[in-house]
Design goal:
Elements lengths: L1 H25 L11 H21 L7 H21 L7 H20 L4 H20 L5 H16 L2 H4 L1
Helix pairs in contact: 1-2, 2-3, 3-4, 3-6, 4-5, 4-6
């Protein structure tokens, strides 16, 4: 049962989005992965939210894993917020949303499972700093876009802790 869920997650969060990215790149809708304009980001972010919704709605047994289920709901919330921000011409850092969501989720697992994963949390903190530094170095985002992405990623997970912690 968990193998089927893993396959569904891989297809809907990695393989299908990657295939669609190459299709959008080939058709000229997206010029660059790292330098996408706000208009170029709208459709892929909407698709990301749609794929997460499909995974949550139609995967028959993801509810059996409450932490993963609510992590995915947090991803859906984050994607929806990022999509809405494109309509006010604000480009939030999707990389920071992702890495900060993962950090907040790992902290929740530390609390939820009572497992000693402090080295993993420290590693993810290092990832957060590395991602933020690289986005600044590449001039892909400014500090406000990085901070906003961080807050969206962290808060979308923290809000959901009450449902499974």
């Amino acid at each position: 049962m968990s193998l089927v869920l893993l396959i569904q997650v891989i297809i809907l969060t990695m393989l299908l989005p990657l295939s669609i990215y190459y299709l959008l790149k080939a058709t000229g809708y997206i010029k660059s992965f790292t330098e996408a304009t706000i208009n170029e980001r709208k459709f892929p972010i909407l698709l990301q939210a749609l794929f997460l919704f499909i995974l949550l709605k139609f995967s028959g047994f993801i509810e059996d894993l409450p932490a993963i289920y609510y992590f995915m709901i947090g991803g859906l919330i984050s994607s929806t917020i990022a999509f809405m921000l494109t309509f006010i011409n604000f480009k939030v850092s999707l990389h920071m949303i992702g890495v900060c969501s993962l950090l907040a989720f790992t902290v929740s697992l530390y609390v939820y499972l009572n497992v000693a994963i402090l080295p993993l949390i420290a590693l993810f903190l290092l990832f957060v700093g590395s991602v933020a530094s690289s986005r600044l170095y590449m001039k892909s985002h400014d500090y406000i876009e990085l901070f906003t992405g961080s807050m969206i990623g962290i808060l979308s997970q923290i809000i959901l802790w009450q449902f499974y912690l």
